[in-house]
Design a protein that fits this description.
This protein has 393 residues and is an alpha/beta fold. It is built from eleven helices and 16 strands.
């Protein structure tokens, strides 16, 4: 059944509204993808176009698209040769993906505590966690603010470790003017719905190392023997692939490939990435301004040589107030964010930032020395509205 024209016009109008995060070329590219007769779809796949544009944006040789920012980390560990009994160092403050990807390699996740000011993994606590089994470090630029990579790279050199930057939250953040993700041997990005740019679900690995790129692509692409670092397969002669001894797959792998339609959306998102990051940075400056002089709310410290991409605006709460939510008591403050989105913050309750639980009621894999809360900063119609946060002063 065809879409009624009036309804279609309404949809198109909504898509191009200022507050819609898909108001760039997303619709155009998706329609081009859906156009059965579009010869470009075969000649130049959307994943290839996204990979090429992403690699160019970051000034690296290879970008390999995936279906999530978890599968990307898994492919990176595989490419790093992380195997049974190896140890991988990562931050205490991250999500379950870090533990899961290590365990899938039969490796051990080793948690390093947070720096109480930057809230990132404390670089000065990494060395004490290195053993002869340590194979890789995953510096994770949490909440958009990059880690100081020089200390990590020095340790990696000293102990011969592979560095995989997790940039899921830090698109276009910089360290000494270099883009986060271009310092370690590999970097992983997530395109899940709330990230700076999204393909709904998806991810990307970047690297300059061809050997690693081939391993990553094979890991994400069912281990086809003739996959290369760039998109496409090495072409084979019929005499090769029709040979009964021909091995189609030469490594154990998964299907972690990004769907073409997602890549079409991703390409349009990438075109506006600078603008999306700039808006978050602008919003963060508004929070900085209203929180000035409040000593019981301490924002994440952005080291001087770095620039944060502010995925969230993250704070440490030093106040005493607790309120009862569900079964536990939580230290809590209520924010009405400067920016709010119909999708994430539906009611005032949703605006609460939970800072800590009441004495370990939440089962944790490991406990950080500090607990922080984040305000999500989706870009929407309420941007700049009244600034109700100033009420808490
Ligand atoms: C720092 C970090 N790493 C990894 C991931 C995992 O990405 P995904 O949700 O796309 O699997 C996320 C995402 O939510 C993240 O924030």
């Amino acid at each position: 059944m065809r879409i009624d024209k009036k309804y279609l016009n309404k949809l198109i109008n909504n898509v191009y509204k200022y507050n819609n995060k898909f108001n760039g070329n997303e619709l155009k590219y998706v329609l081009e993808y859906l156009d059965y007769e579009n010869p470009e779809n075969d000649a130049n796949s959307w994943t290839a176009r996204l990979e090429e544009a992403f690699a160019q944006k970051f000034g690296v040789k290879y970008a390999i698209s995936h279906n999530s920012g978890t599968s990307t980390l898994h492919s990176c560990l595989h490419a790093a040769g992380v195997g049974a009994g190896d140890e991988v160092i990562g931050p205490i403050q991250t999500g379950i993906w870090f533990a899961f990807v290590c365990l899938h390699q039969n490796a051990v996740p080793v948690y390093v505590d947070s720096d109480p000011d930057t809230f990132n993994m404390d670089p000065d606590k990494i060395e004490e966690n290195i053993t002869e089994r340590t194979k890789a470090i995953i510096p994770t630029h949490m909440h958009g603010t990059p880690m100081e990579m020089d200390k990590i790279m020095n340790l990696a050199d000293k102990y011969d470790l592979i560095v995989i930057e997790d940039c899921a939250q830090s698109f276009l953040a910089t360290i000494d003017g270099k883009l986060a993700g271009t310092i370690g041997q590999m970097a992983s990005f997530s395109f899940e719905t709330k990230k700076h740019m999204t393909t709904d679900q998806g991810g990307m690995v970047i690297t300059d190392d061809e050997n690693l790129a081939v391993k990553i692509r094979k890991h994400a692409g069912l281990g086809y023997q003739n996959l290369t670092a760039k998109q496409g397969m090495t072409s084979l002669m019929p005499s090769q692939f029709q040979n009964p001894d021909f091995k189609r797959h030469d490594s154990l792998a998964y299907n972690y490939r990004m769907p073409e339609i997602c890549a079409a959306i991703g390409l349009a998102q990438l075109e506006n990435l600078d603008e999306k990051v700039a808006r978050r940075v602008k919003i963060a400056a508004m929070y900085d301004e209203v929180l000035k002089g409040i000593d019981w709310i301490v924002p994440q410290k952005v080291p001087e040589n770095t620039k944060s991409a502010y995925w969230t605006y993250t704070i440490k709460y030093l106040g005493k107030e607790t309120i009862k939510i569900r079964k536990g008591k939580y230290k809590c403050i209520k924010f009405c964010p400067v920016v709010q989105t119909g999708r994430i913050f539906k009611t005032e309750e949703d605006l609460q930032v939970w800072i800590s639980d009441d004495e370990n009621k939440i089962p944790l894999l490991a406990k950080a020395n500090i607990l922080v809360g984040s305000i999500k900063m989706e870009l929407t119609k309420h941007e700049g509205v009244k600034n109700p946060i100033s009420k808490i002063k």
